From TrEMBL:
This is 3-hydroxybutyryl-CoA dehydrogenase. SUPFAM superfamilies: 6-phosphogluconate dehydrogenase C-terminal domain-like, NAD(P)-binding Rossmann-fold domains. The keyword Iron-sulfur does not apply. Its EC number is 1.1.1.157. GO terms for biological process: fatty acid metabolic process. Gene3D superfamilies: N-(1-d-carboxylethyl)-l-norvaline Dehydrogenase, domain 2 (1.10.1040.10), NAD(P)-binding Rossmann-like Domain (3.40.50.720). It comes from Nitrosotalea devaniterrae. It comes from the Archaea. The gene is hbd. The keyword Cytoplasm does not apply.
């Protein structure tokens, strides 16, 4: 399976980012959207990004022009797919919308084209089964922004061929990214399965302990070795993204997430985080602001319950043969920026104490029942 020509469906932040990294690696790229104005805006952003790389002397001016010339914006769907080897779909995370797009694509796409969806939470198998080629369909989840983030989750559906998994891994490496394979099409895949439930758990921890957001975030940053606090990270990601992922994951597996009403409340109040000026925290300007977190504040909160939550979901992935420790650590390092391996941090806390903490919480709510893999480590 040779990939030379790529069509990216959707020209938003992720779409034009994926188009840019593909063109930078020598692929011919068609960027497709439903209106020319969306494409014009996307091409402007790509040009700005390439100019920035030229000014930083990462690429020459000539290279910048060549890369830009490899991306062709097209509105007409049939024309956009005419000679496509790999189609990467980056339309919004709404299952009905994706199904509608694939129904249109199926009518005009060449026989040789393989399908990839950049979804971060929707089941690959379910989307694949709406198409004429489920064995030639795969999940390829780039992280935002694709130009900077190294991690790409590769998610085979139930019918995806082994050849396509290998081809996709090679494609990801060819665009200078690091693939992590989620071996089973489970809700949230790897990173979101660990990250999204943790936001809810932090809100419960605030209820249980009376700790402040800043104390919890400081402990997450300095004791659990995250690049920023969990509430801060939620604000950075956007409450709209977190709320939507929560609904998707929880509707498919009640065991993955214990939804805290605060997330839905913030979403309903349009307090979406950094982008709207308020989420868990308030922000004053357009510029991305960091919350003042300190090691002093970190000492005031013990994040063992949060650690238990993320470890329990990691253990679930291992027990259910969706991943292994090495791949999970790679995903957390590249996808969430953890500065120390998760299981190493857990050893410092004592696995027995973590399991006991989960068992204590499970007496109130079965959701916290420790996974057998975690119990085996204590």
């Amino acid at each position: 399976m040779t990939i030379k020509n790529i069509t990216v469906l959707g020209s938003g932040i992720m779409g034009h980012g994926i188009a840019q990294v593909s063109a930078m690696s020598g692929y011919n790229v068609v960027l497709r959207d439903i209106e020319k104005q969306f494409l014009d805006k996307a091409m402007e952003k790509i040009k700005w990004s390439l100019d920035k790389l030229v000014s930083k002397q990462k690429i020459t001016e000539e290279q910048g022009k060549e890369i830009f010339a490899r991306i062709t914006p097209i509105v007409d769907l049939a024309e956009a797919l005419k000679d496509c080897d790999l189609m990467i779909e980056v339309v919004p995370e709404i299952m009905d919308l994706k199904k509608k797009v694939y129904a249109e694509v199926d009518k005009v796409v060449p026989e040789k084209t393989v399908f990839a969806s950049n979804t971060s939470t929707l089941p690959i198998t379910e989307i694949a089964n709406t198409t004429s080629r489920p064995e030639r369909f795969i999940g390829i989840h780039f992280f935002n922004p694709p130009q900077l983030m190294k991690l790409v989750e590769v998610i085979p559906g139930q019918k995806t061929s082994k050849d396509l998994v290998d081809t996709t891994i090679n494609f990801v490496k060819s665009v200078s990214k690091e693939p992590v394979v989620c071996k089973r099409d489970v809700p949230g895949f790897i990173v979101n399965r660990l990250f999204i439930p943790l936001v809810h758990e932090a809100a419960y921890a605030m209820d249980r302990t009376g700790a402040t957001k800043e104390e919890i975030d400081s402990a997450v940053k300095f004791t659990l070795h995250f690049p920023m606090g969990i509430f801060e990270l939620a604000d950075f990601t956007g409450m709209d993204v977190i709320h939507k992922a929560t609904i998707e994951m929880h509707s498919r597996d009640k065991k993955v997430i214990n939804p805290h009403p605060m997330i839905e409340k913030l979403y309903n109040e349009k307090k979406l985080g950094q982008k709207s000026g308020e989420g868990f925290y308030k922000y004053s300007g357009e510029q991305y602001e960091r919350i003042n977190l300190t090691e002093e504040l970190a000492k005031k909160f013990n994040p063992i319950q949060l650690l238990g939550n993320i470890l329990n979901n990691a253990a679930w992935l291992i027990t259910n043969k969706a991943s292994d420790v090495q791949e999970i650590e790679k995903a957390l390092l590249l996808g969430m920026g953890l500065k120390k391996p998760l299981f190493e941090t857990a050893k410092g806390f004592g696995m027995q104490d973590i399991v006991q903490e989960l068992q204590k919480l499970a007496r109130e709510n079965k959701f916290y029942e420790p996974d057998p893999y975690l119990v085996s480590l204590k």
